[in-house]
């Protein structure tokens, strides 16, 4: 059980840290002539709970207010009075390789089915749901619905900048590992869609949405 705890902790430690760089990682460390995939340093085949929380940035909240757009949780998501949007982790997998051995060296997904965030204004409602975090591409994708009708599946919604990540915290008393500090930014595609839907032009790619905190069960 301790080995599994350490394996999960090591994998999650690299998850957000690698998010900003692993998509362009140099593969020069791969042995010449080798065609086989190297053995992973750590691997989790089935992620279980708990959640990804995003402390919404004041600038993002102010931008929504100026555009008369109201955010709200969808499905199993919640938004606290302190402005933290939480999305339960429902599954996924992560594999971590030695940096330089493969590219990207962090691979897998973190799923958040059945939850999301909605924006309402001007008689329209846009729902962003079923988030999937891909650390290898530093991207969070999801389903986009406009007034209840699906507009896009697996749409690129947010960019995940892991350069602001804090060190991993492991809490043995409650069996969790916590990664906090990854900056969540609006993607160009999602900004364009929101601008078009609500008839505005103020939202831009790169707008800071908030700071993420990922909490997972370690099995300890």
Quick take:
With 220 residues, the protein is of the alpha+beta class. The protein contains three helices and 13 strands; from the N terminus they run H-E-E-H-E-E-E-E-E-E-E-E-E-E-H-E.
- Mean pLDDT across residues: 81
Q: Considering DSSP H and I runs of 4 or more, what fraction of the residues is helical?
A: 10-25%
Q: What share of residues are in beta strands?
A: over 45%
Please report the distance between the alpha carbons of the first and last residues: 6 Å
Explain this structure:
With 220 residues, the chain is α+β, with helices and mostly antiparallel strands. It has one domain. Helices cover 16% and strands 46% of the residues. The protein has three helices and 13 strands, in the order αββαββββββββββαβ. The protein has helices at residues 2-17, 58-66, 188-198; strands at residues 42-44, 50-56, 70-75, 78-79, 84-88, 91-96, 106-121, 124-134, 139-146, 149-161, 169-171, 176-186, 208-217. Strands 1, 2, 3, 4, 5, 6, 7, 8, 9, 10, 11, 12 and 13 form a 13-stranded antiparallel β-sheet that branches. The protein is globular and about 50 Å long. The model is unreliable at 1-34 (pLDDT under 50).
Describe the secondary structure blueprint for this structure.
Blueprint (H helix, E strand, L loop, with lengths): L1 H16 L24 E3 L5 E7 L1 H9 L3 E6 L2 E2 L4 E5 L2 E6 L9 E16 L2 E11 L4 E8 L2 E13 L7 E3 L4 E11 L1 H11 L9 E10 L3
Antiparallel strand pairs: 1-6, 2-5, 2-13, 3-7, 4-5, 6-7, 7-8, 8-9, 9-10, 10-12, 11-12, 12-13
